[in-house]
Design goal:
Blueprint: H1 2-7, H2 25-35, H3 40-53, H4 61-66, H5 69-76, H6 80-94, H7 108-116, H8 123-133, H9 145-154, H10 163-170, H11 177-188
Amino acid sequence: MGRLIDDWGGPLPQRIDARGRPDDPYAALVRSIAGQQLSVAAARAIWGRLTARFGGRPPTPAEILADDPDELRTACGFSRAKVASLRSLAEHVVAGELELDRLDELDDDAIVRELVAVRGIGEWTAHMFLVFTLQRPDVLPVGDLGVRNAAMRAYRLEAPPKPVALAELGEPWRPYRTRASLYLWRSLGSQPL
């Protein structure tokens, strides 16, 4: 890791660049769901259509639930599955099953468990939320292909490490695994959406 830091630009900024992600936790999760499995351009276009539909801002949970699912899908270019995921997120927030205002009180594993209970939010999305929205210092997104590929290159492995192997490799990086991930992404010249 020391060589990687030396080779890829020294210190990182104190605050991680959220790359256009909203600061509001709910809006950040909506944006994550909206942009999943899309190119950067497609994700931006869909996010733009979604915010335009709600007066140039991210929708609230109540607005998502009040909107007609088929009209939302058509207006924004969502699949039925994405609309269902957005509605699941809104339902969890409205029902108090996902209390976004108390996430700072929870450890990372508890936050991941709460987030993956929402349809359409998996471990990768939860890890990106921890890194970029909550700015947690010790997150290693073991399912991220970029981190896995960068670890393969940096440690001269024959193949990208499986998530369990990457977790083992990353143990010495505690309690700064987020920083290690940023250096790994930097070594590829990229950062996830």
